Amino acid sequence: MRNINDLVKLIKKAAVEAVNASDPTTIRYGEVINTNPLQIRIDQKLILGTAQLKLTRNVTEYETEMSVNGGAKQTYKVFNALKICEKVLLIRMQGGQTYI
């Protein structure tokens, strides 16, 4: 029986190593230190720039059409752009240095 238990442990270890080697996504926290160009500090050594960031609509300025109280449609600008000192939650994309 010992040989089977050793084999199971070896398979589990290989599976964990395979997942770790694929560089799965991770969640990091950061702080906006500059807005033009956008820079986010994750720690003292790592500062992300626009090349490493994929921004969602939740953190950008955009225009949208709406009607209020059944009136005519109008275009409104939504001001959601990141600001200096804001804290952000970042998701590192699998296998790379790009963050959402």
Give structural attributes.
alpha+beta; 6 strands; 100 residues; single chain; four-stranded antiparallel β-sheet; elongated
Q: Topology, pairings included?
A:
Layout: H1 2-21, E1 26-35, E2 38-41, E3 47-48, E4 61-66, E5 74-79, E6 87-92
Antiparallel strand pairs: 1-2, 1-6, 2-3, 4-5
Structure, described:
- The protein is of the alpha+beta class.
- It has 1 helix and 6 strands; from the N terminus they run αββββββ.
- The chain has one helix spanning 2-21; strands at residues 26-35, 38-41, 47-48, 61-66, 74-79, 87-92.
- A 4-stranded antiparallel beta sheet has the order 3-2-1-6, with no helix packed on it. Strands 4-5 form a two-stranded antiparallel ribbon.
Separation of the first and last Cα atoms: 48 Å
Give the H and E element order. HEEEEEE
Largest sheet: 4 strands, antiparallel
Residues in helix, %: 10-25%
Please state roughly what percent of the residues sit in beta strands, choosing from under 5%, 5-15%, 15-25%, 25-35%, 35-45% or over 45%. Answer: 25-35%
User: If you average the pLDDT, what whole number results?
Assistant: 87
**Structural class label:** alpha+beta
Q: Poorly predicted ranges (pLDDT <50, ≥5 residues)?
A: none
Please tell me what the overall shape is: elongated
Strand order of the largest sheet: 3-2-1-6
Count of extended strands:
6
Evaluate the radius of gyration.
Answer: 22 Å
Number of helices: 1
